[in-house]
Amino acid sequence: MSTKSHATVMLRRNFKHIARNPTSVFNAVLMPIVIMLMFVYMLGDAFDVGVDYVDYATPGLMLLAVCYGLGGTATSVNSDMTKGIINRFKVMDVSRGAVLTGHVVASVLTNVIAIAALVGVAFLLGFSPSAGFLDWLGVVGMILLLAFAAGWFTVALGLAAKSPETAGMGAVPLVMLPFFSSAIVPAEKMGPGIREFAEYQPFTPIIETVRGLLTGTPSTGYAIAAIAWCAGIAVIGYVWARAKFTKRA
Amino acid sequence: MTEMAITASGLRKAYQDKVVLDGIDLQVPAGTIFSLLGPNGAGKTTVVNVLTTLLKADGGTVRVAGYDIATETKRVRSAIGVTGQFAAVDELLTGEENLQLMVDLSGAKDGKRVVADLLERFELTGSAKKPASTYSGGMRRKLDLAMTLVGHPRIIFLDEPTTGLDPRSRRTMWAIIRDLVADGVTIFLTTQYLEEADQLADRIAVLDQGRLVAQGTADELKRRIPGTHVRLRFATVAELDAAARVLTDSTRDEEALTLRVPGDGGSKSLRVLLDRLDEYALGAEELSVHTPDLDDVFFALTGHTTEVAAK
């Protein structure tokens, strides 16, 4: 049987998992929306960011939504590994491509659903981007690239972790990173140390790229940095995941 | 000459500097049940992982179904089925969906019927539409084994198939394994229960700290280990001495103040023994009947108990 149809079978399985595990759907889709309501309604007026807060925060929250989906991916990959399901597939000669790609694609699609819901809510809250059609394409491309890169990285994390619990923990830094970026408030308003960290960590250029596109003022410098970060994370994640898949029995 | 389903020679595996398998040689004739017996940590799962192509050995050669596991991995994989130590079922899928998943991946023809037949054969039809997470331990193992059978493997590896099962489920599993062999399948089974190996296996190999310390039929192995015996514990050395003089075929343990008397543990032989003690006005503090278990096998074959081996 070809790898392609194996991949389809795997993907179908991953979708059934998503549909039957409401907790992971809740984490992936509802949590970012809850956080958005919290920041925009409760805290937003307290921040002075120069523009309407919902316009400022939405790009960052879109990234946060990607990260919230990752916890579920790490846990489900790890439980496949530790419960012997991956071994079963390996003995059946199912390619690692099919097994791992299934998880990555499921992860990306969860992200897409979460972000679509989040942007919908943002519009209800008065989100008014000035992006043109091409800018929107750029936003979608950037988010997909991040979801893909972070997806591979998370799959590797899930394969490497000892148990589903530690795999879930392993994804926590990814969930925290957006808070220490320019997602919620601009980096220059943070204290020393954190400000430098926020300026140089991968999420800031990604968020600034999306933010630039949505306000119709894209920044090439940020975009190049963002794409470079994503490519790097994707390659490391992919190579690490492949190695772990082959080695761990 | 009988066809060999599995042959391994000089199999070695180490993790960093810890040697897990230290030169394993074994031969399993086609259509038989071979049991690898050993305590936790002996290296049983590592042997299974190597034989089933999941782990690469550091040294030695292995042929499974006539194919070299290092160079003809794909052919080996298409000939074998593996049921691992923990039931590898997808808990979020139903029993039926789990089997269908295996059908889809193996490309088996007439999938619907294969699934229905397996559900029927393993008495899972009634729970077919329920998620596997609601199954009992015994049902999970059955589903796991049913999933392994989807591709009609000629050689099946079962890693501790009954560990953690209640006695009834264990017996069901044994019956299923016997049926498989009756159909001409070769079974490679690991277990930590002497009784299980004794019940099922044509040949048994005892694994201890990465080495095979004994190989043979169940009867051959039992001849090398102490049989059923009665153990008598006395209050004083004087009583122990007196009893040892009366029961001449017994072995004494000075420190524990015990006497080991060979016997089948039946009521008649026990009565004879007790009458004999009465005759000489001797009384034991405690009497117990012992049948040989894995501990005894290990003690006899390795000079240490399973507890030590597990460390």
Number of strands of chain B: 14
Estimate the mean pLDDT confidence of chain B: 87
How far is the N terminus from the C terminus of chain B?
A: 41 Å
Radius of gyration of chain A: 18 Å
CATH superfamily of the largest domain in chain B, by name, is: P-loop containing nucleotide triphosphate hydrolases
Q: What count of structural domains of chain A?
A: 1
Q: Number of helical runs of chain A? A: 11
Major sheet summary line of chain A: none
Largest sheet of chain B: 6 strands, mixed
Short description:
With 249 residues, chain A is an all-alpha fold.
Question: What order do the helices and strands come in, and which of them pair?
Answer:
The complex is a heterodimer of chains A (249) and B (311).
Chain A: H1 3-20, H2 22-43, H3 53-82, H4 85-91, H5 96-124, H6 133-160, H7 164-170, H8 172-176, H9 194-200, H10 203-214, H11 220-247
Chain B: E1 4-15, E2 18-29, E3 33-37, H1 44-51, E4 59-64, E5 67-68, H2 73-79, E6 80-83, H3 95-106, H4 111-121, H5 137-149, E7 155-159, H6 167-182, E8 186-191, H7 194-200, E9 203-208, E10 211-216, H8 218-222, E11 229-233, H9 237-246, E12 251-253, E13 258-262, H10 267-279, E14 286-290, H11 294-302, H12 306-310
Parallel strand pairs in B: 3-8, 3-9, 6-7, 7-8
Antiparallel strand pairs in B: 1-2, 1-4, 4-5, 9-10, 11-13, 11-14, 12-13
Helix pairs in contact in B: 3-4, 3-5
